[in-house]
Amino acid sequence: MNRETVVTEALDLLDEVGLDTVSTRRLAKRLGVEQPSLYWYFGTKKDLLAAMAEVAMAPHAEAPLPEPGDDWRAWFLDNMRSFRRTLLMRRDGARLHAGSTPTADLDRIHRKMDFLIASGVPEQHARTAMLAAGRFTVGSVLEEQAEARYGDSAEPPAGVPVIDHESAFEAGLALIVDGLAQYVDTRPRPLP
């Protein structure tokens, strides 16, 4: 047993039983070890959950970074779509990710910010837009996964439009990008 095995098994357990039911006791039983042995790898359950969140986000963390000359709008949309897809890969993926700190991804985050700034997005607006879009994405996936978890099949009240989750996500994301576009200086700038 090693740290990677523990995280892999914990993520498999998450997919089977959901975040509310993941426990170190249950994970230890699954691994065929005593519960205290898990503390060799993770001091607390919070540490384990952070490691799980980092590994669960690997598909998004491996997505291509923007290149000079890329269209910032297209990249921004693709980046958030990748984030959404990655959150949806795991049962309760958005709940697992919510509140986590992207310590392993800081260089990539800086490169994304540098790209937006070089594309003419003012630094403060780039930060705000990335944070808002990230939180919007997590919230959208939370709603989608909650509906799937609780099996909400009730018809909405009369007069309430039915919008599928992907369409609602795309509409909200477009509003963020369109709002950000009004602040963009279109004069070419070199990357820092």
Automatic annotation (TrEMBL):
Coiled coil: none annotated. SUPFAM superfamilies: Homeodomain-like, Tetracyclin repressor-like, C-terminal domain. InterPro entries: DNA-bd_HTH_TetR-type_CS, Homeodomain-like_sf, HTH-type_TetR-like_transc_reg, HTH_TetR, Repressor_TetR_C, Tet_transcr_reg_TetR, Tet_transcr_reg_TetR-rel_C_sf. Keywords: DNA-binding, Repressor, Transcription, Transcription regulation. The keyword Transcription regulation applies. Residues 23-42 bind DNA. The keyword Ion transport does not apply. Gene3D superfamilies: Homeodomain-like, Tetracycline Repressor, domain 2. Residues 1-60 form the HTH tetR-type domain. Pfam families: TetR_C_1 (PF02909), TetR_N (PF00440). This is TetR/AcrR family transcriptional regulator C-terminal domain-containing protein. It comes from Streptomyces cylindrosporus.
